[in-house]
Amino acid sequence: MYSLQRLSSGLPVLTAPTDGTSAVTVLVFAGAGSRYEIQKNRGISHFLEHMFFKGGKKYTNAAAVSMAIDSVGGDFNAFTGKEYAGYYVKVAAEKVELACDVLSDMLQNATFPPEEIEKERGVIIEEYRMYQDTPMYQAGWDFETLVFGDQPLGWDTIGTEEVIRSVTHDDFMNHKNELYTPDNLVVTFAGKIDESRAMQLGKDFFGGIKGKKVGAFDPVKKHEGKRISLTTKQTEQAHLVLGVEGISALDPDQFAQKLLSVILGGSMSSRMFLRIREKRGLCYYISTATDNYMDTGLLSTRAGVDQSRLHEAISAIRHEYEECAKDGVTEAELRRAKDFLKGKITLSMEDSEERAHFFGKQQLLYPAVRDLPMYFEEIEKVTVSQINKLAAKLLQTDRLRLVVIGKENGEKKLEELIMA
Fold it and tell me: Which of 239, 313, 391, 410 has the most beta carbons within 10 angstroms of its beta carbon?
């Protein structure tokens, strides 16, 4: 369960208590992902995430921030996605004031010292290169670029090297002031904490956040571009992503899409895993997943395969899509998928960090927050007929997009494999 109150500034304070834990996670969500960027500041959202950890008034540098949390054995980190960013500290419950103290100082009093900006440029460039050298991650970014094209939803979150090397102190201050405002933040407490305690901490540590959000991201534009993205590279495996543009997080069929992805490749008993990994021995990793945004989404299968069997793997994944579109799924498959999804969510809720993420993200982005019974009710409502209609709509051959990173050097054959 959860509860929601607001500070006088309008800042939401969401509490999601749970028994059986001695930990508390304080997670601040911001509607400040990379979709809010334009060409001239591509990557500022992610860079800003890094810079918040460089210190404020009380914890004046990165060492002070890290030592404060390390001294109590806590965990802290941050993330930047396309539509939101998040900052969290997870500590033993009796240290929750320290968690709030560190987070509030970072988010309200960050100074963005120019000398730290200069040092962090190199860090982020190396992060950028790391992802380029990790094709199983890079392929996913390339897939979004292939599907959405040259618009914020199709850009890598990490940004461009040009922006990373040129962004300034004033750029960071402006971006923070425009988006890190009470009407665009959610402070979430999860774990061993009650509503009154969370609300008091919210007032004491986050009550000073002021301002109004400036701007919003543009709706996604339809992109009719290439169907293949090939990066020829000397890798031990060929890494591929094959999928389609899906539906949004607000679509009435969103839960049907989640369950469809589970049936296709979301578990070790899924079609992709049993038929392509276990039966054919084509790959070590293979999975199907969805990415859901406010106005669109993705459904895709990714795998790493032997270079010599790349074409076979692409054909096999495509076959599973086509068969599902034509013949649909069974009642037994849907039952297993529902129980799998509900079970995974139930297990994740034992972790205060996951619990904070589940509720806080909903509060930030969606019209209403579903608690677990409501969420499970939506899962149970999905029918075989609903999934089959969605599969027939989405999994069409002419909608397929393919990313490959590996030793392959000809796009023509890849096009034939997904278009024939």
Answer: 239
Tokens of 321: 């899509």
Q: What is the mean pLDDT of the chain?
A: 96
Residue ending a domain, among 153, 174, 206, is 206
Q: Which helix (H) or strand (E) holds 276?
A: none
User: Do 262 and 181 share a structural domain?
Assistant: no
CATH of the domain at 44: 3.30.830.10
Asked if residue 260 belongs to a domain, the reply is: yes
Other Cβ atoms within 10 Å of 153 Cβ, number: 26
Q: Domain check: are 336 and 240 in the same one?
A: yes
Q: What is the pLDDT of residue 420?
A: 66
3-6, strands of its sheet edge to edge? 3-6, 12-17, 185-191, 23-30, 85-92, 75-80
Please determine, for residue 419, whether its predicted confidence score (pLDDT) is greater than 90: no
Burial per residue of 229-250, b for 16 or more beta-carbon CB atoms within 10 angstroms, e otherwise: bbbebebebbbbbbbbbbbebe
pLDDT given at position 50: 97
**Number of folded domains in the chain?**
2
pLDDT in tens, 182-236: 999 999 999 999 999 999 999 999 999 999 999 899 999 999 889 999 999 999 9
pLDDT over 70 percentage in the chain: 100
- Residue at 222 is within a domain: no
- Residues involved in catalysis: 49
Q: For residue 283, is it within any domain?
A: yes
DSSP state string for 39-94 = GGGTTHHHHHHHHHTT--SSS-SHHHHHHHHHTTT-EEEEEE-SS-EEEEEEEEGG
For the cut 90, the answer to whether the pLDDT of residue 314 exceeds it is: yes
